[in-house]
């Protein structure tokens, strides 16, 4: 979807159309959730501190996020996808992979299917989407960004080598700033450069990831579209107006534990339970710390979850007086509820 949250705001409020819209709460600790294309021309981007976005674009209109409306729009788009295929792998509210090797509609090609989906999204939601059509997931992802907004880009099998060769290695999935710097130190800036280094050499330097890099440079990606992926973690977190100490975190941890437990209850309705409690902290100098525990007896209430999360503060080895700008409480290590109960009975009743 194109500038999804901001586009929903512009759709629902005609006064915002054609104007630089920033979806974010105002404040020194807020970050940008989305920016309209009018705001992006000033350099405003998602995940940017809201205060910086305001400096870059003083005339920007700040709108607080409304995830209820965004989720409703996302569900409508997913319904459109489902008319064409059941093989849908959501990545977020505004993005998904679709396998249209075989479709419900009988359209003659993946390109025709993408065009039909985009047309339905435009007509039914008054929003626009961009699509990438390619033989595999990683190429389709790259292609989806090439004609934004409201565009369609197709990479056919015989075009893969020529398409990838001039791209920066930073366009490859998993190549962040650190890996990009390591590759540049080897004289590798483009995918074409990457192909020059033998697979064995890449594997020697970077392990299995080196082998993966070699495959990506050739356009190889065998990962299938995976519908109905299981949740790995549920969590809630908060950024504070002012940095606070460990001792001041307890009321915030308990409030977030309530939210996390409510999300966990929904997973339990699906037959899955979590075993591991996670406490996440971000220091005043932006270092992220996580502490986790898998107790022998899993928490059975939001209070028990909060008690364990609060206790995890004792495992944070930072100087006394250290301050924190963010705290999060999570549950992970999901297992099937029936099998967990069966195993518990086995060990508790020898």
Fraction in helix: 40-55%
- H/E element string? HEEHHEHEEHEHEHHHHHEHEEHEH
What's the assembly state of these chains?
A: single chain
**Main sheet: strands, sense, barrel:** 4 strands, antiparallel
Strand order of the largest sheet: 8-11-9-10
Please state the overall shape, judged from the principal axes of the Cα atoms. globular
Q: Please indicate the percent range of residues in DSSP E strands (runs of 2 or more).
A: 15-25%
Q: First CA to last CA: what distance?
A: 55 Å
Unreliable runs: 339-350
Q: What Rg do the Cα atoms give?
A: 23 Å
| Mean pLDDT over the residues | 90
How large is the count of helical segments?
A: 14
- Number of strand segments: 11
Structural class: alpha+beta
Describe the structure.
The protein is an alpha+beta fold. 40% of the residues lie in helices and 19% in strands. It contains 14 helices and eleven strands. It has helices at residues 4-12, 37-40, 50-56, 67-82, 110-125, 137-144, 160-164, 177-185, 191-196, 199-206, 208-217, 250-269, 302-311, 337-348; strands at residues 21-23, 34-35, 61-63, 88-92, 95-98, 131-133, 152-154, 233-245, 272-283, 288-293, 323-336. The strands form four sheets. A four-stranded antiparallel beta sheet has the order 8-11-9-10. It has a three-stranded mixed beta sheet with strand order 2-1-3. Strand 4 and strand 5 (95-98) form a beta hairpin. The longest helix is centred in the C-terminal third of the chain and has 20 residues, at 250-269. Residues 339-350 have low confidence and may be disordered.
